[in-house]
Amino acid sequence: MAIAQQPSTKQDILQYLWQHDSATAQELATQLEISQQAVRRHLKDLEVQELIFYSAVAQEMGRPQHVYQLSSKGSDRVSPASSINYSTFAVSLLDTLAETVGPDQVSHILGKQWERKAIAYREALGDGSLQERVTKLVELRKAEGFMAECHSLESDRRFIMTEHKCAISNVAESFPSICGHELEMFAQVLPDCIVERTHWIINGEQRCGYLVEER
After folding, report:
1. What is the C-alpha separation between 171 and 173, in angstroms, rounded?
2. Both 196 and 119 in a single domain?
3. How far apart are alpha carbons 49 and 154 in whole angstroms?
4. Tens digits of pLDDT across the chain (215 residues)
5. Residues 71, 111 share a domain
6. 3-state per-residue secondary structure call for 45-108
7. For residue 184, is it within any domain?
8. Is residue 61 part of a domain?
9. How far is the CA of 51 from the CAs of 144, 146, 161, in angstroms?
10. For residue 115, what are the domain limits?
11. CATH of the domain at 114
12. In the 8-state DSSP scheme, what is residue 24?
């Protein structure tokens, strides 16, 4: 079913990527009922504005295919107002806590919150293989608003988990220590693994990445 035309085709593209996580130029052209050439012009403009980015995905035959996704900036552009308001409220609340009890205590509170999250994740993941647990963790993160995915490296003992859209990016910008607690949380969720950060949105990169390696 084609998406109804809106005054801005670029906005349609952003909205589609928000709803479906990723898409190729051909898929967008089909859904928007416009030519691939027109779609590619819009995609190029959106890239220049840093609202989207693409990954080259290998195919069995032919050249790699470009798969487009929203950047954090693009996600903010199309996020529902309620989501933005909740993020603003969370940052304001943490600012108030920092003024009241001090930044160290706020960091301690955030750490406790992630510990609770780790317990919930571990219960949900169960005792399957590492691949099964990482795959389940990615699904849980996607359900919470993170654009997550994972890829195996050489064997079923090493995986790269990436998150292209951070559901707590606004909070992390004001309180980057939350990302440190998040890394610790992943290590608690996968206690038989070494978990290392490979990419970080806060550093200006397009995604957060974690290397998960079985001990």
Report:
1. 5
2. yes
3. 36
4. 344 434 488 988 998 888 777 899 999 999 999 999 999 999 999 999 988 998 888 777 778 889 998 887 787 777 655 455 556 777 788 888 888 988 888 888 888 888 999 999 999 999 999 999 999 999 998 888 777 888 888 777 899 998 876 767 777 777 877 888 888 999 999 999 999 999 887 777 777 899 999 98
5. no
6. HHHHCCCEEEEEECCCCCCCEEEEEECHHHHHHHCCHHHHHHHHHHHHHHHHHHHHHCHHHHHH
7. yes
8. yes
9. 21, 17, 22
10. 104-214
11. 3.90.1520.10
12. -
Looking at the fold, whether 127 and 48 belong to one and the same domain comes out as: no
Residue 85, domain member (yes or no): no
Both 38 and 128 in one domain: the answer is: no
User: What pLDDT is stored for residue 2 in this prediction?
Assistant: 41
CB 165 within 8 A of CB 70: yes
Three-state helix/strand/coil letters over 111-153: HHHHHHHHHHHHHHHCCCCHHHHHHHHHHHHHHCCCCEEEEEE
User: 109 in helix, strand or coil?
Assistant: helix
Bridge-based pairing state of the strands 193-199 and 155-163 = unpaired
Q: Does 209 lie in the same domain as 135?
A: yes
pLDDT of residue 201: 76
Contact assessment for residue 207 and residue 164, using Cβ atoms and an 8 Å cutoff: yes
CB of 164 within 8 A of CB of 142? Answer: no
Do both 52 and 108 map to the same domain? no
Q: Identify which of 66, 49, 78, 65 has the alpha carbon closest to the alpha carbon of residue 165.
A: 78
pTM of the model: 0.61
Q: Tell me, yes or no, whether 56 and 157 share the same domain.
A: no
